[in-house]
Amino acid sequence: MQVAMDITTKYCHKEMESYGQCVAAHPSTWQQHCQELKMKVAQCTSSHPVIQKIRTDCSKEFTEFERCLLENQNSPTSCSAHVARFLGCAETVDLAGVAVNPVPQPS
Q1: Banded model confidence at residue 8, pLDDT cuts 50, 70, 90
Q2: Which InterPro entries match (predicted)?
Q3: In principle, which of 26, 89, 93, 95 could form an S-S bond with 30, CB 3.0–4.6 Å?
Q4: Is 97 left (phi over 0), alpha (psi -120 to 50) or beta?
C-alpha cells in the first residue's frame, strides 16, 4: 500500500493536497463539499497500473470502506476497521509484472 500512496503522492500531489484540505475544512459535510476534488484524485490515479491492480484486487474492501464513510459522515473514524481491512488487502496484492514507474500523465 505504501507504494500506491507514494505513487499517488508523486503523480497526484496537487489533487491529494486540495482534497485533504477540503476534508479538513469540512469535517461533517466533506462528502458533499469535496466531491469534485475527490473525483479529480480518482481521475489522476485511475491511470496508474499499481493503483488499478489494487483497486481490482481489493474492490470489495474498498467499496465497504466507502459505504462506511457514507453512512458515518459525522464520524469517519468509526470506519477504522474498514480501512484496516482495505490496507491489509492492498498489502497482499501481487505487483509482479506491474509497471511501478510509468511515465507520469499530465493532470
Answers
A1: confident
A2: CHCH_domain-containing_protein, CX9C
A3: 26
A4: left
Q: Which secondary-structure segment (H or E) carries 94?
A: none
- Residues 100, 50: Cα–Cα separation, whole Å: 6
The set of long-range contacts for 28-34, using a CB threshold of 8 Å and a minimum separation of 24, is 28/73, 28/74, 29/73, 30/73, 31/69, 31/70, 31/73
Contact 86, 62 (CB under 8 A): yes
Give the pLDDT score at 90: 84
Strands (E), the chain: none
The grid cell for 33 is 463539499
CA 48 to chain centre: 12
Euclidean distance between CA atoms 2 and 76, whole angstroms: 21
